[in-house]
From TrEMBL:
It comes from Blastococcus brunescens. InterPro entries: ATPase_NBD (IPR043129), FGGY_C (IPR018485), FGGY_Carb_Kinase (IPR050406). Keywords: Carbohydrate metabolism, Kinase, Transferase, Xylose metabolism. Pfam families: FGGY_C (PF02782). Residues 78-277 form the Carbohydrate kinase FGGY C-terminal domain. This is FGGY-family carbohydrate kinase. Belongs to the FGGY kinase family. One of its GO terms (molecular function) is kinase activity. PANTHER family: SUGAR KINASE (PTHR43095), XYLULOSE KINASE (PTHR43095:SF5). The keyword Cell inner membrane does not apply.
Length: 347
């Protein structure tokens, strides 16, 4: 692609090549220059910011999120679950072939990472929780939204491990992993399924992780990728021990949650800056890996709670996924035959 661009540019009379305009690639721990006089003045016209400040290689939110969750070593990864859901898995080697379900990025240290990104996450769960809260208010009860979520999530623990014949698709928008350009939120059940609160909520929690599971199956079952642990963070995991347990079942891998990601990506880039500063000052060895630095200097004593996959949950999630994949034509038919409601109507 670089060569093709250069050919077209040359035809237009441009002498520079694109490679000369792109920044150099640097990995975590390497120096990335210092703040210039012009840069300091641009960032802080008041003059309090001094030139000469050392810079570390910049990172986007994917890389800083890996650092903030201590997920940069091979066979580790992290799942973020909120409005959307994505998993980042650090690979021991390159994938064998291209998969449409996966994107490839790297850790800040340059190790290959496979990313499973799902457009739809917890928004449909939010909608159902809002409906239950509205019902409670209609009964004259004032409830804290966080208590509504906690109560509904806790009920899911008593639901049927396989979803009890219920299915839900949380597709408020399209979902590339399942080949859908649009979405229609959908709930259905077999005539003999028992409509209980626990199973209903477990079905919706399973649904929020189902598309992720499809992408993870490509990694784990097709490519043979092995995981020692997965770190989970995001709104879906705020109720202790529920979504964490179901994620462990979905990917058949131990799942950890804790306070290590509380500060997010801004904190992650600060850690990368400290890693570069410690190397340049001699406080850490130039041979020390980013993973060792995080383990030894940053996350020592961090509070983590790890859940192992429960065999009954693993078996139940597998059964749910068989129905989920088999029912995808129903979701596609809903997209084809059910038009979105017009905006601006009565709610």
């Amino acid at each position: 692609m670089l060569a093709r661009f250069d050919e077209l540019a040359a035809e237009a009379g441009v002498e520079l090549t694109l490679a000369e305009l792109l920044p150099a690639i640097a990995v975590a721990g390497q120096p990335a220059g210092t703040l210039t006089d012009a840069g300091a003045a641009r960032l802080d016209p008041a003059g309090r910011l001094h030139p000469g400040i050392p810079l570390c290689p910049p990172e986007g939110d994917a890389g800083t999120g890996m650092v903030a969750t201590n997920s940069v070593a091979p066979r580790t990864g992290n799942v973020s679950a909120g409005t959307s859901v994505f998993a980042m898995v650090v690979l021991e080697q390159e994938l064998g072939r291209v998969h449409r379900e996966l994107d490839l990025v790297t850790t800040p240290a340059g190790d290959p990472v496979a990313m499973v990104h799902c457009n739809n996450g917890a928004s449909e769960l939010d909608a159902w929780a809002g409906l239950f809260a509205e019902f409670a208010r209609a009964l004259g009860a004032e409830v804290d939204p966080s208590k509504v979520f906690g109560t509904l999530f806790a009920a899911a623990l008593d639901g049927a491990s396989d979803g009890g014949g219920m299915l839900a698709y949380n597709y408020l928008s399209g979902e590339p992993i399942t080949g859908l350009e649009e979405g229609r939120p959908l709930f259905l059940r077999s005539p003999d399924s028992r409509l209980s609160l626990g199973t209903f909520m477990r079905t919706h929690l399973y649904s929020s992780l189902a598309t992720l599971r499809i992408g993870m199956d490509v990694l784990q079952k097709v490519e043979g990728v092995r995981l020692d642990r997965m770190f989970a963070h995001g709104g879906l995991f705020r109720t202790e021990g529920v979504a964490q347990r179901f994620l462990a079942a979905a990917i058949d891998t131990p799942v950890s949650v804790g306070d290590v990601a509380a500060e997010g990506g801004a904190w992650g880039i600060a850690v990368l800056a400290a890693f570069a500063a410690d190397r340049s000052s001699g406080r850490s060895s130039p041979e020390q890996s980013l993973a060792d630095y995080l383990d030894g200097a940053v996350f020592t004593g961090a509070s983590l709670h790890t859940v192992e996959p429960d065999p009954a949950d693993v078996e139940g999630f597998d059964a749910f996924m068989q129905r989920y994949v088999a029912g995808l034509p129903v979701e596609r038919a809903a997209v084809e035959h059910v038009s979105p409601a017009p905006r601006g109507g009565d709610e």
